[in-house]
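Case study B.
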Amino acid sequence: MRKENSTNTLNKRQMEMDCGMSYTLAAIGGRWKPAILWRLTHGKLRYSVLRDAIPQVTERMLVLQLRELEKDGLIKRIVYAEVPPRVEYELTAKGKSLTPILQNLSDWGEKNR
Amino acid sequence: MRKENSTNTLNKRQMEMDCGMSYTLAAIGGRWKPAILWRLTHGKLRYSVLRDAIPQVTERMLVLQLRELEKDGLIKRIVYAEVPPRVEYELTAKGKSLTPILQNLSDWGEKNR
DNA sequence: CAGCATCCAACACGATACTG
DNA sequence: CAGTATCGTGTTGGATGCTG
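Model:
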């Protein structure tokens, strides 16, 4: 790593750009997060439905990514006190605000791949 | 991995969404790609300028990510037949078309972190 | 039903040294 | 100036089996 030069004024706008983007990419960048978020855009889904809607994901990864999305405040986990257990996942307002961005990413990908 | 059920019609729109997004995220998702792309939005930059504009990156990673961006057609590498050598990097049209999307990602990140 | 625990492989990324 | 080469590490994610 090179030494950082104090006269090197990489300006504030650039750092904020990097920073904001890193945050967003970390939030949606997991291997299965886009798939999960997209499935949830049309409403609440039960764990088993979500799982069956993304057949390629292992349960381990599904749960891990759901937990991260929850921790980042993008989805809400709703546990019903029933037997057998029922758990549903739903986008939060923050999560919903990502929808147009996900759409943009998808559109760009479809057009350019 | 669960066995894929042939009656499980995960519909075509969903698969295209995932697919397009995966493609886009792979294109911009590298650790330093957003930083590189952003630096290039205002025009051609020389290798050493780019390097000094992102002091945290090692040369190894910078070159690797530049090569991938080039392979994906987002940037163009221009080598001048001079001594000492000079190399410049520039966004392609495809790369430029990402700018508004990067801006969205940055804005969302700034607002929500 | 909705997970968790364990083990393991692949890869991304960093540090450091060297070069056409 | 603009890179390569080599080595080492931490994280990501997959396979498999078990559980409140």
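The domain at 33-105 of chain A is CATH 1.10.10.10 (Arc Repressor Mutant, subunit A). The remaining cases will be described in the next quarterly update.
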